[in-house]
Design goal:
Number of helices of chain A: 4
Number of strands of chain A: 3
Helix content of chain B: 55-70%
Shape of chain B: rod-shaped
Helix content of chain A: 40-55%
Largest sheet of chain B: 2 strands, antiparallel
Largest sheet of chain A: 3 strands, antiparallel
Distance between the termini of chain A: 99 Å
Oligomer: heterodimer
Strand content of chain B: under 5%
Strand order of the largest sheet of chain A: 1-2-3
Number of strands of chain B: 2
Order of helices and strands of chain B: HHHHEE
Strand order of the largest sheet of chain B: 1-2
Distance between the termini of chain B: 93 Å
Order of helices and strands of chain A: HHEEHEH
Shape of chain A: rod-shaped
Number of domains of chain A: 1
Strand content of chain A: 5-15%
Radius of gyration of chain A: 30 Å
Structural class of chain A: mainly alpha
Chain lengths: ~180, ~110
Amino acid sequence: MYRSNKKIVDLEQSGQSTIEFLSGFIVMVSFIFIFVDFALNLTNGYLVHYATFMASRSYLVGDNNSNDPIGSEGHAMKNAKKVFKQYMYLNLKGKLRFNQGLGGEDVKKVYVGAYYQYSPRFSSAAILTGNKKMNFISESFLGREPSKASCLDRVCRAIKDLGGDCQNHTSLIDNGC
Amino acid sequence: MGMVWMDKFKSAFLTSGERSLRLGQSLVEYILLLGAVATFVAVVFNSAAFKRVIGPNSEIFAKMRGYMEYSYRHASPGNELRSDYFGKKHDTYYNSKKQATHFFGPAAKYP
């Protein structure tokens, strides 16, 4: 009799601790999620850095044997984007761009290469941290090798300076530069 | 100690009507307390000082966001993304505070 009544009294009071537990739990889980999001953003960021680096490597050497000194640019960028996608399996909705350093765009030669810009969410607990997105930029400026056409130009100019020409039997070692 | 035990013992043998009356009282008290706590929480949450710490306009999280953006890009501590590709303003390469490059070379000219 006493035990069954005690059980009823206990049950009547269990709602309070449930409400308190839930309100505390929601706040604590939100805080935990802020740091989980930080960690995920950074691990995704490392992957982006590596993919950008690999894309930049591809852009560095991309050449399609064009006879125009800057005719390989499109091919190099296309290939670099392909390489980037091979490493980047996450859809971060960013954009891979290239600093070409061709002269017209005023970009310093030291910044020639690939960069990827995207906007990850700062945290999923927007009520605590706000809804603003971050601006993450991953850069890899490895430069760009001169194209074969560009090297051929230089070699021919040197041969012409010595009194010859490039019309017949001109060999280029490696890419010629 | 003895009184508490007696109360517990008595409450275990209450009729259902008596128990309902007691439950009603504690429910009203609980709701009143909850209202007071909710008011207190609302006052704290709406205060300017609290909004600077937590919320959509939080200064702390804005600083954290800025720090993460900068350190992600330049692998060094900082807060303001200002680098461009047109001059010596890229912080990965140039330390604006020291007015010197991040790269190093020989201290003296090679003979």
